[in-house]
Design goal:
Length: 201
């Protein structure tokens, strides 16, 4: 009888622990950021070459989680929706393709072991989230970039690009649509700024 009661008590305790432990729900929908500018900004390429390094992300945004804001200063994540990759990783090939499409550089490299690049572009995702404090909700996407001349390691330009775009619907997918519009505008702005800065240098 004591053994039966002991087993029953253990079963109740196990059930209580299970109910108190956080349960991670499976993601049912994954999305990508794939839009980039294809604008040609030069008739023929210059002799300049550019190394585009892998973008970084500030703390809190180094994740596939799709983040949103419903309370000031509080980030939350959608439970059943996520990016297929952290946004900084998805931004990387978009920047490279957009800069290549400008037609300005004789070569655009992505390998850190590339020798002889004239300039280096470093980028950092400062934040990307869907803000529900406004109606309609707004997708906030902010990227910092630094352009460096490799020969003397001198920073010749830096800046921050902010895109705050209204979402077509107050849903995770509405944020995805707005994020892709933002990535197109960001890649175009970065490409233009890099080329303009080099010409002025």
């Amino acid at each position: 009888m004591k053994k039966l009661l002991s087993t029953f008590a253990l079963s109740i305790l196990a059930g209580a622990l299970t109910s108190c432990s956080p349960v991670k729900l499976p993601v049912s929908s994954q999305y990508q950021i794939s839009s980039y500018s294809t604008k040609q900004l030069a008739i023929k390429p210059s002799y300049n070459t550019l190394l585009v390094t892998t973008p970084e992300a500030v703390a809190g945004y180094q994740t596939e989680a799709m983040l949103y804001i419903k309370k000031p200063y509080q980030l939350e994540a959608f439970t059943k929706n996520a990016w297929i990759d952290p946004p900084a990783n998805m931004l990387y090939p978009l920047l490279i393709q957009s800069i290549q499409r400008t037609g300005y550089f004789s070569a655009v490299a992505s390998s850190p072991y590339t020798q002889g690049a004239d300039y280096r572009l470093d980028t950092q995702v400062l934040h990307i989230d869907q803000n529900f404090l406004t109606k309609p909700s707004v997708l906030e996407f902010s990227v910092k970039f630094v352009l460096t001349r490799v020969s003397d390691n001198k920073i010749i330009a830096s800046g921050i690009i902010n895109q705050n775009l209204p979402c077509p619907q107050d849903t995770p997918y509405g944020g995805v649509i707005a994020a892709n519009k933002a990535s197109l505008l960001i890649t175009e702005a970065v490409a233009r700024f890099v080329i303009t800065s080099i010409k002025r240098n």
